Amino acid sequence: MDRPLVITEDHDLLDDLLRVAAAAGAELDVAHVPAHARPYWNRAPLVVVGSDMADALAATGPPPRHRVILVTHASEDPDTWRKCVAVGAQTVLELPSAERQLVDEFADVVEPQTRAGHVVCVAGGRGGAGASVLATSLALAASRRRVRTLLIDADPLGGGLDVLLGQEETGGARWSDLVAREGRVSFTALQAALPSFAGLTLLSFHRGEVEAIPAEAMRSVIEAGQRGFDLVVVDLPRHPDQAAVEALGRATTTLLVVTADVRGVLAAAQVLSGLRRHTGEVRVVVRSGVLDDDVVTTSLGMPYAGSLPDQPRLSAALNRGDFPPLSRRSSLGRFCTSFLHSLFGGSP
């Protein structure tokens, strides 16, 4: 694959460009004089011209092409736009203020084809409803069907999805390694950094004191997930924080797990009021109880996604670190198969 081309002799500017490119997961071809750039000019997916080389490059008469950017450290230099026109650049980016935009430009040309993955959020109507188990089951079921899947733990007080999966000792990045991220994140770099097993990529929390996830970090991760995965499943806290709001705003659908009893429905109604402010479609998953499924959905005024009968041996298996096999005979397995079938139009 051809690499972006940088034309500059300014070592400070080059250092900045290499750092920005690394953040986007890009490798560069570098030309210190215009003559060295000639073999790469037409085939490079992106050309970045340092303002120090603009006049010299223009003197060689390079053929017009798309995706040429002029970069500069000079603030409000009146000569900048003349140089931009001279080299046929489409825009001027001033560093360091435009670093985030330049990361996006590099990432656009080095990442594989966009997948536009679905985002599914899962929330519990009350504590212990089983939202984390359902979110994890959906992600595992999808990955076992060769659907590229990212599972995001967005509940800082949930105990950790890595523990639920029996993978707390698996190496890889956790949220504490990503909370400072802003702007675009390369999904290839994200996937390489995160723990993966059974075809599933997981982002969870470290043990110990937990930092809140900034909205910018959640936005970066989900956008990277949508570019590189077919499905992103997000396990939400019951009270949406700023990170949960970011996830809800990008959700294809949100599943609310409700226990079929009076207190469960009343608690779920309060959770639902918070969800509806930030997302479009919310569907109810009913955990079997004393109330009929239609009573639960009618009380909440939300469409029905399915039901999950109790599985008496499930808790014991999870405490042993044994996640259920999700066979088509189990209620979890049947629900996941049906939901994924509907989400992907019959062909996950």
Automatic annotation (TrEMBL):
SUPFAM superfamilies, A to Z: P-loop containing nucleoside triphosphate hydrolases
Matching Pfam families: CBP_BcsQ, Rv3660c_N
Bilayer-crossing regions: none
Keyword field contains Plastid: no
Gene Ontology molecular functions: ATP binding; ATP hydrolysis activity; helicase activity
Biological process, per Gene Ontology: negative regulation of cell division
Record-given protein name: Helicase/secretion neighborhood CpaE-like protein
